[in-house]
């Protein structure tokens, strides 16, 4: 106003001069020619372009009247190109008072006025700034008097609109004045107006008494009252002067029946409704100005007092306020954040002014959901946006703010910390330190004003003792992880865009680092992040994440990658590399983030210099420790994996492969199509053998098929090499109760099995192997039409059926013309010899009987019936003919219904037995063997005649229970009876035996065998009984030869393997004294089967040597005897009678 008044004065003076010059021309003039002058005056005063588009007129008379139409004041922004428009303005005044610096408007009017105010995010408006200093005039003279006087007797305004766009608070207000009438009669000033505020009607009346000039505020009595909607208000005050206005006594009263109606008028959120009553009273007391305020706004209440020193005014004062309300949510709604907790609260504010500094002693918010206490200093009233506040914050549970922050359950813990806010020069420095059960955080930074806080910077560091809770946001069952520490910095580059600098996360000795641009919402495409992970030990790092970490190498590893976000649902992955001592993995691709079908696809390059570190649980043979390389296109989608390898880009050593593999984890389905080749398999032989001059052996293999959870389809399997040819194909139903479509055809040809020895580390025989298979489905069963095996001079044909009504049931008929076991027995003997040498140190040498587990659990879901017919079985000491057998296996155990065979002298043997499982007890073992006319134990010697060999009669029965072979032996019950007939045995045949029963028997019976071609035997008999693992026989053995008769008593504890045997021999008449003395008359064997010893009785002289035991210690027959006795008669027949009686008793008992 003080800048406009001088401009108005100049405007009127100029107009008066023009009037005087033109008085002679006319009484009523058009001043259009002077429009540029008036526009210049107005533009200079307002510092804004002003245009007068309508006519400018002047009417002369007692009173001078000026009329201006179509005035436009320009704006400063594209949003508001026009600041104000005036349709018509008329002013009537006297010219002569202007010469005395008095402006008296006897009448004035303005119509059709529109003002557009735009307030930006920083609170800066578009209203005009002060104009040119050339239009400035002294506002007061040296005495302080106002130089100009202004009176407006009668002023009318109609149709005036004021529009305010408040961008900072996202609000818009519109004030429309229908009519405004101002009068000034003598010293009484009155303004009456009516209109609407945001469509709410208002009517007001303002009065001023004691007005001499509107520019000279001196001893005025003011009053203002009116209504706004259903609210009414009134204000009264006495103003001594403008500089004493703060010392004036002021009374303000406001009442409304509805707080929400008043909030709606000002475009504010609604609260729980209630009346509004406000009382403000200021008055003087002694030398201080006191202010009392009491406000009831709905259910919110604010009350307090303030005072200031009248002498110092703004430089000394104190204020104390308390506010309370029923809900933080409603309080937050007033400031645009309506989702605060719905809990009652109170706010206490206490502060003081000393000089130019404001001291905020207490600013505290108390509620069940949040406690916030701040204090600090502000530079002064004119710098309320600067200063520093610090304090503490306490949130018992962040779940109370779930509606505001939308926090996941895992982050809804407590929060305690300190906060420091410092603001200066338009920027705010923030220092926050918080601690909770989930997170310890220190954050410092600077918030700068501007769109989206662009330019703001933050530094942060902290730790989390339970990072698994953070991972629970992303995955349902996060693993247990150790504490983590983190630090980093970030800069807000633009709204929704942050530059992440030096983010470092440490977990134990593992480190993750990230930096780059992070965008969200509409700026997601700006994201470009680089990440690197350093693992001190790959197994330790991945142990919480994988079910079998023992298969992961314990080596350091490093992974790094670049991520960009080119579109809303796509992430590009570039330069992804994981490197370790075991190899390098590279990946380039993209991840689609479509919610319905997220995918990951790209090109993967894996390079492993040696596969051994990949296998942590076993040692890869040296010859297989080769490099592995894979270059493949991969695609991952929910539940699916696809790998495609082109141009032999899968290599393992010299082997290369091309193919495709796709896995559907949802439908449990896999498709595969692979082709592999090797230029020379001989290069994979063990060291020392691969260098042998052998021709190369190239091999090609292909396989095409499909695997489902319920079936396996092998479209083709082909292996081609010089020594091996395999062709197979078929379809197998894996889970159905019936075989409907299953079939299998296979041909396998191996020219020399021994060719595989070096690869399999097993001495296979040097002979061929051909296998032909033809399986088909009929009547719900898988029928084995043909399973033919041919190797060397052996042939087997298997036919049968496989059914699966619930568990697998197999019925097989095995027929063979000839089965030669000799090559396989030699192979097993060589294997066992090698293995026994290797395992010698690990063997328990205290025992001879092995301690193997006995179990039938593997038969719980399987049953089989097997019939066996082999015409000739060779490879044993004597050939066996007409081998027939019937076996059953199932959940109850194994039964040998019948197993029989014949020998060359039409003798035969039959075996029956079972190993049956029993609930909650050890398996039960039973076996019975009977044989007659048997020829056993000695390989055929040169010139040996089968008819001259002694025959054997054999009968035994044993039963017991146990979970291991040793426990079974310790409670075994039964008997063994053997009778040998007369015959001759060539002594040369014994030279081929080691640890043989007959060899030791021969050496004991006939010390002179080296001088004889053969040994004649009249008869021999052996009988032992076993009870609860204790073996005994009295006599256990009787032997009758032309030279000597032998008797032996034997006891043996099968649990401890302690043995005691006493022997006595009777040389026959006719040998002579010198020959008879060769035999030791009294011999005792004692000790254990593993460490027996022989002593001579009665002198107890050590005989020496060791007791060779059949099959590793089972032979108990000694070389010498204890006592020489006289005996006559058929000792074998006598022992047989006793044995038969004993066996009969035991058979009846069982």
Could you walk me through the main structural features you see in this protein, from its secondary elements to its overall organization?
The protein is mainly beta. Among the domains are: about 1-215, no CATH class; about 220-365, no CATH class; about 970-1150, no CATH class. It is about 10% helix and about 50% strand. The protein contains 15 helices and 63 strands. Helix 1 (about 5-20) packs antiparallel against helix 2 (about 35-45). The longest helix has 19 residues, at about 5-20. The chain is elongated, with a radius of gyration of 57 Å. Mean pLDDT is about 80; it is low at about 1-5, about 15-25, about 130-140, about 990-1000, about 1070-1080 and about 1095-1130.
Please tag this protein with its features:
1150 residues; disordered N terminus; elongated
Secondary structure elements and their pairing?
Layout: H1 4-22, E1 28-30, H2 35-46, E2 50-52, E3 56-59, E4 64-74, E5 82-93, E6 102-119, E7 149-152, E8 154-166, E9 171-185, E10 188-197, E11 200-209, E12 218-228, E13 231-241, E14 250-256, H3 259-265, E15 276-285, E16 288-297, E17 300-309, E18 316-325, H4 328-333, E19 345-354, E20 357-367, E21 371-378, E22 387-395, H5 402-405, E23 415-424, E24 427-435, E25 440-447, E26 457-464, H6 467-471, E27 484-494, E28 497-507, E29 510-519, E30 528-535, H7 538-542, E31 557-567, E32 570-580, E33 583-592, E34 599-608, E35 628-637, E36 640-652, E37 655-664, E38 669-678, E39 699-708, E40 711-721, E41 724-733, E42 743-750, H8 757-760, E43 769-778, E44 781-791, E45 794-803, E46 808-820, H9 822-839, E47 862-874, E48 880-890, E49 893-902, E50 908-918, E51 921-934, E52 952-961, H10 965-970, E53 973-980, E54 983-986, H11 987-990, H12 997-1005, E55 1014-1017, E56 1019-1027, E57 1030-1040, E58 1044-1053, E59 1058-1067, H13 1073-1076, E60 1082-1088, E61 1092-1096, E62 1101-1102, H14 1110-1113, E63 1123-1124, H15 1131-1149
Parallel strand pairs: 6-7, 6-8, 46-47, 59-63
Antiparallel strand pairs: 1-3, 2-4, 3-4, 4-5, 5-6, 8-9, 9-10, 10-11, 11-12, 12-13, 13-14, 14-15, 15-16, 16-17, 17-18, 18-19, 19-20, 20-21, 21-22, 22-23, 23-24, 24-25, 25-26, 26-27, 27-28, 28-29, 29-30, 30-31, 31-32, 32-33, 33-34, 34-35, 35-36, 36-37, 37-38, 38-39, 39-40, 40-41, 41-42, 42-43, ...
Helix pairs in contact: 1-2
